[in-house]
Design a protein that fits this description.
With 240 residues, this protein is an alpha/beta fold. It has 10 helices and 8 strands. It has a single domain, classed as Rossmann fold (3-Layer(aba) Sandwich). It has an 8-stranded mixed β-sheet with strand order 1-4-3-2-5-6-8-7, with helices on both faces.
């Protein structure tokens, strides 16, 4: 009997997971209508199991979040953790008057949750988002494709991706890149310098021991290797 992935039907049934590109590209230019607000729109490419994605939902209740992932288990697990984060937010202290007004404005919306998960490659950013539609982009520990020379063309942070991401990002907002692969990190820095688009806001070759390291805001990858000797490299690019 052929194997059937049990997460496929779960993803199809979840209201906050979109599997078809034909469905989610319809929102390009009008994501504010989907979320019913003009708050900052944040993208995480490669949500993994959703640790950092759900953390952001808990911490930043005045932003909207879109995650991109490919595997069904990761898609569903991210959505489940995001649901838990939204429920935790709704059970906190009573709403202030301005928040009550916002809640009434959203009351006809499906569930008033500030997130969506897309089954998509990160390279499709320009297909999904319009010019200056994004506020922040997070890319944490993407596959470095470093085993063979011909694999390098598959890296996410290519010249085309960095150009497309630049045009999709609002002025004064940023792109975050974190990796444990020094070569990938330095190759990305070199592309940034050659493009003359992004402004380098921060470069860290020792992120785990830096002042900006947040022990609560880690991915599952960082959780696995936090006690090891591997170095983490962090790059923040700003659009000016």
């Amino acid at each position: 009997m052929p194997y059937e992935n049990p997460y496929i039907p779960k993803c199809r049934e979840h209201p906050r997971i979109i599997l078809s590109k034909e469905d989610y590209i319809l929102h390009k230019w009008k994501w504010e209508k989907y979320f019913w607000n003009n708050d900052p729109l944040v993208l995480e490419i490669g949500t993994g199991m959703g640790n950092y994605f759900s953390y952001m939902l808990t911490k930043y209740t005045n932003k909207n979040f879109i995650g991109m992932e490919l595997r069904y288990k990761r898609l569903y697990t991210t959505a489940r953790k995001a649901d838990e984060a939204c429920e935790a937010n709704s059970s906190k202290s009573p709403l202030a008057p301005s928040a009550v007004k916002r809640r009434l404005w959203f009351q006809s919306h499906e569930d008033n949750k500030r997130y969506l998960i897309l089954q998509s490659y990160g390279q499709s950013v320009w297909d999904v988002f319009a010019q200056e539609e994004l506020s922040e982009i997070y890319i944490y520990f993407p596959d470095p494709f470093c085993y063979k020379q011909k694999q390098l063309k598959h890296r996410l942070l290519s010249r085309d991706f960095l150009k497309n991401s630049f045009y999709c990002t609002k002025v004064w907002w940023v792109l975050h890149f974190k990796t444990d692969h020094k070569e990938y990190f330095e190759d990305t820095l070199q592309i940034v310098k050659e493009l003359w688009l992004w402004v380098v806001q921060l470069v860290s070759y020792d992120y785990k021991n830096s002042d900006i390291y947040d022990r609560e805001a880690i991915t599952e990858f960082e959780g696995l290797f936090r006690g090891e000797q591997e170095d983490f490299y962090y790059l923040i690019l700003e659009k000016k």
